[in-house]
Write a structure and sequence with these properties.
This protein is about 40% helix and about 15% strand. The chain is an alpha/beta fold and about 270 residues long. The protein is built from 11 helices and 10 strands. The strands form 2 sheets. An 8-stranded parallel sheet has the order 3-4-5-6-7-8-9-10. Strands 1-2 form a two-stranded antiparallel ribbon. It has one domain: Alpha-Beta Barrel (TIM Barrel).
Length: about 270
């Protein structure tokens, strides 16, 4: 597995996203067995970075992830757990309370990474970062980051954070280049910030065009693997696909080690 390392923190190129584990915006406990099986499979395959949020299944996703970690008896020290605070909680006390809730549901004493999930309307970053900085000082969070931030908000978050911003988590795939066009990717690459690509397979709706299919055939792998490899071959880019299928989970992990030539990278642009 290839890693990206910034500010002394190494993260695998491919992690595990958990959106739709335990439900969507609400908990759906009827799929708990299926969700736990998917999480246990990912842990047993060797996934290290798990990305969740307090809003995923209204917190139930965090509960299931914590349960799976306990059931598989995975050493907490080898995992990298990311969670996110919702925009409706971006007040000082709200951030602290949200973090405590995530820690309780996950059954852990600290988060490796804590993100502002979405920018709120007319948001001022001073107050939430006062709380985020305190969480780092208190040892409850090790690294800070943001999600869905444009360039101006990303730069402002750097000014407000007492520790380096580790990542900006944004939608990025072979077909979604919005954070290339708005200059966020370039800025991250030039300023030691990871760009964490979510929905890298467009939530299962990835279209396999001629170029993607041709490169996949040349490497004897699947088009989704090439779509992930295209991200993994870019500096300062990591990604967090999600799959409930153990075969696809393994294929996603293996995609990190597919080396694409400059010509193949250009072919997919």
């Amino acid at each position: 597995m290839k890693y990206e390392t910034v500010d002394g923190c190494g993260l695998p190129k491919v992690g595990f996203g958990t959106w739709n584990i335990g439900g969507g915006s609400r908990a759906n406990r009827r799929r708990d067995a299926d969700s736990l099986e998917a999480l246990r499979s990912a842990l047993e395959l060797g996934y290290i970075h798990f990305d969740t949020a307090e809003s995923y299944a209204a917190g139930h996703c965090e509960e299931l992830l914590g349960q799976a970690i306990r059931e598989v008896r995975t050493d907490r020290g080898r995992l990298f757990l990311t969670s996110k605070v919702s925009p409706s909680h971006l007040r000082y006390r709200g951030v602290l309370t949200s973090c405590e809730g995530s820690l309780r549901r996950l059954g852990t004493e600290y988060l490796d990474l804590y993100l502002i999930h979405w920018p709120a309307a007319r948001m001022r970053l001073e107050e939430p970062f006062q709380a985020l900085n305190r969480l780092v000082q208190d040892g409850k969070v090790r690294h800070l980051g943001v999600s869905n931030f444009d360039l101006n908000l990303l730069q402002e978050s750097q000014r407000q954070s007492e520790t380096p911003i580790l990542t900006n988590q944004v939608p990025y795939s072979v077909h979604d280049r919005s954070y290339v066009k708005n200059d966020v990717l370039r800025y991250c690459q030039e300023n030691q910030i990871l760009l964490t690509a979510y929905s890298p397979l467009e939530q299962g709706s990835l279209r396999s065009g001629k170029q993607l299919a041709a490169v996949a055939k040349a490497h004897s792998v699947t088009p989704p693997q090439i779509a992930l490899a295209w991200l993994c071959n870019q500096p300062r880019v990591i990604t967090i696909p999600m799959s409930r299928d153990s075969v696809h989970q393994r294929q996603n992990l293996e995609a990190a080690d597919i080396a694409l030539s400059p010509e193949e990278m250009e072919q997919l642009v």
